Amino acid sequence: MQQAESGAAVEWRGVRKRYGGTVALDGIDLEVRRGELLALLGPNGAGKSTAIAIALGLLPADAGEARLCGRPPAELDARRACGVMLQSAGLPDSLKVRELLELTCSYYAAPRTIAGCAGLAGLDGLLDRRYGRLSGGEQRRVQFALAICGNPRLLFLDEPTTGLDLDARGLLWRAIRAMVEAGCAVVMTTHYLEEAEALADRVAVLARGRIVACGSVQQVRARVSQRRIRCVSVLDAARVGAWPEVRSVCRDGDRIEIVTDQAEVVVRQLLFEDSGLSQLEVQRAGLADAFVEITREAA
Ligand SMILES: Nc1ncnc2c1ncn2[C@@H]1O[C@H](COP(=O)(O)OP(=O)(O)OP(=O)(O)O)[C@@H](O)[C@H]1O
């Protein structure tokens, strides 16, 4: 199947969706290209799953449209180019992992080998186990293997690492990176902002059905001027918290941590008031800080 003329693997153009009185998507425009991972971020209920469901043709848009590789999502060829890992899978409990993989591979013209899927998703040793007897994290890895077994050119991952331990999460990150390097376009939702920071080429922040920030992780971080100051100090946290430039302050043992938009002013004041202050660090906003700030503004 040919790629869209625009080069987008998936695109949303003016997409709106309401459920009764609830506006889930309020006109979103977004696209993801081959070899690019877009992290779709947003608080609960922001509209992320609805956006994915519309792109997959599982839900109709009220207005606007989504395209997969330039085609309407309802077209079988367009959907065959996609791998999908949604939040709930509804797989039959009684089938063994190998059987699930063989069955799913059989839908595709050029699937991966079972061993290839198992290696990427960390399923070695689980292939002859029944799906229903696996732990939640093991089931999530099987769902990932099913999403990639057709060698997709476009991969939708809705909170793929929820419930995974650190090793399994690391393994999935490596597999996702390998897919992107091989030219796959990936749309991933996650509530783990360090995951978006580690994997995403671009992030889009949804709030109340609108895209309120979109760009590289650096660009989104740069949207907020916040800095975090950490130091060992005897100053009273409540007193520091009353300075007009300080947004928040907390004490952890002998250390205090301050969030501010005016780091230089606050650092000068700290040093002026506590000559014994030590271990001073100033850090710019991380993606998590930017996310909190941007979604707070949107609310
Ligand atoms: N079938 C439905 N009927 C009514 N309202 C719905 C339905 N599905 C979703 N909604 C509402 O639409 C809004 C967007 O939901 P959606 O599931 O897309 O959000 P989300 O960003 O994926 O949230 P989460 O992070 O919690 O998964 C929410 O207010 C939700 O309650």
From TrEMBL:
This protein's UniProt keywords: ATP-binding, Nucleotide-binding, Transport
InterPro entries cross-referenced by the UniProt entry: AAA+_ATPase (IPR003593), ABC_transporter-like_ATP-bd (IPR003439), ABC_transporter-like_CS (IPR017871), ABC_transporter_ATP-binding (IPR050763), P-loop_NTPase (IPR027417)
GO molecular function, one term: ATP hydrolysis activity
Listed Pfam families: ABC_tran
SUPFAM superfamilies on file: P-loop containing nucleoside triphosphate hydrolases (SSF52540)
Keyword Iron belongs to the record: no
Domain ABC transporter: 10-233
Name this polypeptide is given: ABC-2 type transport system ATP-binding protein
Lineage: Bacteria, Pseudomonadati, Pseudomonadota, Gammaproteobacteria, Lysobacterales
